[in-house]
């Protein structure tokens, strides 16, 4: 018997939960068909998380590709089928793979397995990031470097903590439904061991009755705790830096790991800070949404060291 | 004696010729190791200047591996003698550097547009005294005492504290900010 997992027409960070809800109760070893025939749109998170679905089970799943030619074309330009073809048994006609330079996507879906991959991602995106963030979103030029830093630290979490490779993708699009302006979205997803298992591997980890995925998320994201913290005080600063970035640029961060999801939400959005008891999905899935600057409203958040000064001058 | 280490050159020679971005912890560790090797080969000069001007992007991991861990080595009792200065730190480098300095309770002296700057974890009193040394150095403890309105031994204690943190150095006539009277070249 084959279980069919339906991909929603609009696949983003929130609607992807329906995929997990369908997948979680399916017993290991059962045949699965991921049905994306009716999908029309997908965010970078949706596409990278779909690849993680394939990595979440040992048995190779079948995947029915979108029927609409525009959707197929866009998913192809993101590089999705380049990797989906290796991970899934594809059903349906897939456009030829395009070279990266032909793509209009900010950063195509890129595998992150080792340190060199992070260098490659940061090197490739810098020029495009400046054009989009400063040119199209109207953000201060300083955002480009900090965006690259954020991307670097996000990807390094996969290399150092996931225990297996993951995926990163970046795209800009108009976020009319909720925000009425353009956004740049970074998605970094893996199907590895997740925050809870990573922190449990630390020699200094103390198990408590309250210990769960939600607490692990709070420790790692909000309190900058790392599994290396006992041996190296300098660890854990990457996620803290990401938090400062999102505060500074009025951005939103969501991190899902295991059965919990944490959201750090700016004024322009509403979300639940912590969701517990969700259907289990392995690894860590992170999304950062950076909005366009509108009018003269400075995107720099107050407090929390919004910007560094060069010390006091005489 | 002064010595200048160009981090951009070290990065290209150590890791790969294509990189101009200091990102990822293994990259930072490799660059720091190469810098430490250079310091040992040179034989602990009085002032070593670490130049970031050829570095495009610096992330938190590399700031921790290079800046914080080099400073921690110099703070060790068995660490290199002499002083560590920085230059070529642009506004984009500052956020990760300040972050790691505060995490480790460290501070550094950097040169920017011909002026020494103090970054990191210092109290307001330490910063005020350091700025006095920068402006009026070589500064003796009696001058510092007058400015602090404190006994000379208290002024000496505070100057000595900055000196132990390698933020000022003893000079014939008092204390100076490293690099002021021994320009890096």
Description:
The complex is a heterodimer of chains A (314) and B (185). Chain A is an alpha/beta fold and 314 residues long. Chain A folds into 2 domains: 1-101, Transcription Regulator spoIIAA (2-Layer Sandwich); 106-301, 2-Layer Sandwich (Heat Shock Protein 90). Chain A is built from 9 helices and 13 strands. The termini of chain A are far apart. Chain B folds into 2 domains: 1-121, Transcription Regulator spoIIAA; 123-185, Winged helix-like DNA-binding domain superfamily/Winged helix DNA-binding domain (Arc Repressor Mutant, subunit A, Orthogonal Bundle), CATH 1.10.10.10. Chain B has helices spanning 7-14, 25-42, 60-75, 91-104, 124-136, 141-148, 152-164, and strands at residues 2-6, 21-22, 47-51, 57-58, 83-87, 107-112, 115-120, 169-171, 174-176. Chain A binds chain B through residues 115, 118-119, 122-123, 126, 142, 145-146, 148-149, 152-153, 156, 159-160, 233-235, 237-238, 240-241, 244, 305, 308, 310-314, and chain B through 16, 18-19, 21, 23-27, 56-61, 64-65, 68-69, 91-92, 94-96, 98-100, 103-104, 112, 115, 117-119, 127, 131, 134-135.
Write the H/E string of chain B, N to C: EHEHEEHEHEEHHHEE
Any idea how many domains of chain B? 2
Q: Under CATH, the topology of the largest domain in chain B is which?
A: Transcription Regulator spoIIAA
Most extensive chain interface and residues per partner: A-B, 31 and 38 residues
Count of discrete domains of chain A: 2
Q: From the coordinates shown, what is the CATH architecture of the largest domain in chain A?
A: 2-Layer Sandwich
- Largest β sheet strand count, sense and barrel closure of chain A: 7 strands, antiparallel
By DSSP, the count of extended strands of chain A is 13
Q: How are helices and strands ordered from N to C of chain A?
A: EEHEEHEHHEEHHEEHHHEEEE
């Amino acid at each position: 018997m084959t279980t069919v997992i339906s991909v929603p027409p609009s696949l983003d960070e929130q609607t992807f939960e329906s995929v997990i809800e369908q997948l979680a109760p399916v017993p290991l070893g059962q045949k699965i068909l991921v049905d994306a025939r009716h999908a029309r749109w997908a965010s970078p998170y949706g596409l990278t998380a779909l690849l993680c679905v394939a990595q979440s089970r040992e048995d190779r799943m079948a995947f029915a590709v979108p029927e609409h030619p525009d959707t197929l074309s866009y998913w192809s330009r993101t590089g999705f089928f380049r990797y989906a073809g290796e991970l899934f048994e594809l059903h349906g006609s897939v456009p030829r793979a395009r070279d990266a330079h032909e793509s209009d996507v900010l950063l195509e879906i890129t595998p992150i397995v080792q340190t060199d991959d992070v260098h490659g991602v940061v090197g490739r995106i810098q020029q495009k990031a400046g054009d989009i963030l400063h040119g199209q979103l109207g953000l201060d030029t300083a955002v480009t470097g900090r965006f690259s830093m954020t991307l670097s630290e996000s990807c390094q979490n996969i290399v150092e903590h996931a225990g297996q490779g993951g995926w990163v993708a970046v795209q800009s699009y108009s976020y009319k439904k909720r925000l009425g302006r353009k956004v740049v979205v970074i998605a970094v997803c893996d199907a590895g061991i997740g925050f809870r298992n990573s922190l449990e591997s630390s020699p200094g980890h103390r198990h408590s009755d309250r210990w769960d995925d939600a607490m692990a998320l709070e420790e790692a994201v909000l309190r900058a705790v790392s599994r290396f913290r006992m041996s190296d005080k300098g660890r854990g600063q990457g996620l803290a830096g990401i938090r400062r970035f999102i505060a500074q640029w009025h951005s939103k961060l969501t991190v899902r790991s295991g059965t919990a999801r944490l959201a750090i939400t700016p004024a322009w959005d509403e979300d639940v800070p912590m969701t517990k008891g969700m259907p289990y999905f392995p690894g860590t899935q992170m999304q950062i949404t950076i909005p366009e600057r509108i009018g003269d409203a400075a995107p720099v958040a107050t407090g929390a060291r919004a910007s560094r000064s060069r010390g006091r001058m005489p | 004696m002064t010595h200048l280490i160009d981090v951009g050159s070290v990065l290209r020679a150590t890791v790969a010729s294509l990189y101009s971005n200091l990102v990822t912890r293994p990259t930072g560790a490799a660059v720091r190791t190469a810098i430490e090797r250079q310091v040992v080969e040179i034989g602990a000069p009085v002032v070593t200047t670490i130049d970031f001007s050829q570095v495009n992007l610096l992330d938190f991991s590399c700031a921790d591996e290079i800046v914080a861990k080099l400073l921690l080595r110099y703070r060790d009792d068995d660490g290199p003698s002499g002083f560590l200065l920085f230059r070529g730190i642009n506004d984009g480098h500052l956020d990760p550097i300040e972050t790691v300095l505060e995490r480790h309770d460290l501070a550094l002296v950097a040169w920017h547009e011909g002026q020494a700057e103090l970054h990191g974890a210092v109290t307001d009193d330490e910063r005020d005294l350091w700025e006095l040394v920068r402006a009026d150095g070589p500064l003796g403890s009696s001058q510092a005492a007058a400015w602090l309105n404190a006994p000379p031994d208290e002024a000496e204690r505070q100057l000595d504290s900055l000196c132990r943190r390698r933020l000022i150095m003893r000079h014939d006539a008092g204390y100076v900010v490293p690099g002021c009277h021994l320009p890096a070249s």
